[in-house]
Design goal:
heterodimer, A: 339 residues, alpha+beta, 5-stranded antiparallel sheet, 13 strands, 19% strand, B: 261 residues, mainly alpha, 2 strands, 52% helix, elongated
Chain lengths: 339, 261
């Protein structure tokens, strides 16, 4: 990878210098710091950095020149200052003294050759990628994830990474992908790496490995407990359903409701018929544009009141008191006078 | 000093050690004036979970498979793919702080599964941990009216684990639903104060089971479900270029350093 800073055309013909890193294991981080540090070190002077990367994968960062990067600039003092970056040992000099300024110049032809090798490796790593290929994303925000190519559009590929909780769709450059088609289909997981090479396939799948053990004691698991009153099967729910189906005639509502009570559709009956009457009244007022019960009664063809409803229930064999004592007491309690 | 700072495979500390090595010259070393950093010494701790994965990947995968799928995603990407918490949080629609806490909580639960033998704890196992802590008889207050029933925390929790619903367990045992949830949280908090590894493990397990779960229904709560939607990310086009300009705004996406273990 060739990284240019400012107008590098002025650098043509200048020699290159080898920049030594302390460790190849941390090369990726070191290169990142060098790229970050160049603008501060070189200011307005142009600079060119070659990272002769020939192999790239998870935990693999192989350079064609061992632990060396290549750099050139007209500002030699700035080049020497690169050794201040963490992970950089300094320029390769002719003296063993680390503070030596006698950097060994490298012929441009050799570096151009290294550039060609690196460029070839850069574009060849995505060779063989087609739709449905298993690939690894090498750089960027979705770095190291493995997934399947679902779309190819020129130099851009769309990769679907099947995480266990979601699907991550990543649109990235084709050259940013590494083909992993040699991985067997049953081992093609988003976390594919060398560490899990020996792990049995069944452990890589998402299925639970151990069956849910039988609990020591019988436990309740049913969500729909018998006798549980769902809202739709409550008295209010049934009355609302009847009215929503277009039935607004009060007698008709009562007769349908009685049928449903007898068939057991209404799971829990109220304690008195006054509640049934109030429920019918409230639902009718809620569904109809008339907001006043007296007005509604005036316009109704078949009116009901509490006594008629109570009689209808009794006639059909549903015995409910008209009031329960507590309700009756409260109902007839005289209002307190304000003093 | 936390164990992570003693790890010689730590990238940051390796760089620190490298920088120190760069300062020291041979003459100083002979004079005994070289600075020897504690971080670069080989001592007892050898990398915690990273070492466990390297030594026993099968067991790691087995225990990871016992976790919830979201936690599995976090651990697998973090430890096997060396993904950073920042990028993980972007994928999982959360923050770096939350990603960090999810990873730490998931590790605790994984340790709990190691203690429980890889399976969900049975009522007997739960009772053996809860009884010495005095938590087996639940302290139910508030709206709960036990009506002479004798409840057992281990049974209640096991029932909850199987049904996955506070409401179902509450209805069956005639316990007010919020009270049940508060009971489990109190138990977890009490266990966290204990010094016994089994108690700490159970605390982590209880927290995994009750946190971010639906209060009324079954499964994850609405906030967590909203984070589990599929995501689409578009990378910078410079990732496909061999020649790059260092001043390009997307240059940070190139050569992103590996996470520090």
């Amino acid at each position: 990878m060739l990284l240019n800073y400012r107008n590098v055309e002025t650098l043509a013909g200048l020699p290159w210098y080898a920049l030594e890193m302390h460790r190849l294991q941390t090369a990726e981080g070191t290169v990142h710091r060098v790229v970050q540090g160049i603008p501060q070190i070189f200011k307005s002077n142009p600079c060119q950095l070659l990272v002769p990367l020939v192999e790239r994968d998870l935990d693999k960062f192989t350079l064609s020149a061992g632990e060396f990067l290549f750099v050139r600039s007209a500002d030699r003092h700035a080049l020497l200052r690169l050794r201040g970056i963490t992970g950089i040992a300094g320029l390769v000099t002719s003296s063993s003294d680390p503070k030596s300024t006698k950097a060994i110049a490298i012929d441009d032809a050799y570096v151009q050759e290294q550039t060609a090798v690196a460029k070839n490796a850069f574009y060849r790593r995505s060779d063989g990628i087609a739709v449905n290929s298993f690939v690894r994303v090498l750089n960027g925000g979705n770095k190291n994830y493995c997934g399947r190519v679902v779309e190819l559009d020129g130099a851009t590929a769309t990769v679907e990474v099947a995480l266990r909780s979601k699907v991550l769709t990543c649109v990235t450059a084709l050259a940013n992908l590494k083909c992993l088609d040699d991985v067997p289909p049953e081992r093609q997981v988003f976390f594919h790496c060398d560490l899990i090479a020996g792990v049995p396939t069944e452990l890589l799948t998402n299925e639970p490995v151990v069956e849910e053990e039988i609990p020591d004691e019988p436990v309740y698991t049913a969500w729909d407990k018998p006798g549980r009153v769902h809202r739709i099967n409550s008295l209010t729910g049934v009355v609302r359903q009847i009215i929503q189906m277009g039935c607004t005639d009060q007698e008709e509502i009562v007769s349908r409701l009685i049928t449903k009570i007898k068939s057991g559709e209404v799971q829990r009956l109220p304690v008195n018929s006054k509640i049934i009457f109030d429920v019918i009244k409230a639902n009718l007022l809620a569904q109809l544009p008339i907001k006043n019960w007296r007005t509604l009664q005036r316009s109704a063809e078949h009116k009901i009141d509490l006594e008629i409803l109570d009689q209808s229930l009794r006639d059909s064999g549903i015995s409910l008191p008209m009031f329960t004592p507590a309700v009756e007491k409260r109902f007839h309690r005289p209002r307190k006078k304000k003093h | 000093m936390p164990s992570q700072y003693n790890d010689t495979s730590n990238v940051y500390m390796t760089n620190v050690a490298d920088a120190r090595a760069m300062i020291a010259d041979q003459e100083k070393v002979f004079r005994g004036e070289a600075l020897i950093s504690l971080e670069c010494q080989e001592n007892g701790d050898d990398g915690g979970i990273a070492s466990f994965i390297a030594a026993a990947p099968n067991r790691f995968m087995f225990f990871v498979s016992r976790l919830a799928v979201r936690e599995q995603d976090f651990l697998l990407a973090y430890y096997l793919l060396n993904r950073e918490q920042n990028s993980l949080s972007d994928t999982h629609l959360t923050t770096q702080t939350c990603a960090s806490s999810v990873i730490r909580a998931a590790l605790k639960v994984m340790c709990a599964f190691i203690i429980f033998g890889g399976a969900d704890p049975s009522v007997t196992q739960l009772r053996a941990i809860l009884e010495p802590e005095g938590l087996e008889v639940p302290d139910l207050t508030g709206f709960t009216k036990p009506e002479g029933r004798v409840h057992s925390t281990s049974s209640l929790f096991r029932e909850y684990c199987v049904s996955g619903s506070f409401a179902a367990v509450g209805r069956k045992n005639k316990i007010h639903r919020p009270e049940l949830r508060r009971l489990f949280r109190r138990v977890a908090e009490t266990l966290e104060r204990s010094a016994r590894p089994a108690s700490l493990a159970l605390a982590a397990y209880i927290r995994m089971k009750i946190e971010q779960k639906s209060v009324l229904g079954v499964g994850d709560n609405q906030a967590l479900r909203s984070k589990q939607r599929n995501v689409r990310r578009v990378d910078s086009p410079i990732l496909g270029d061999f020649v790059l300009d260092i001043e390009h705004p997307d240059i940070e996406t190139i050569f992103v350093p590996k996470r520090m273990i």
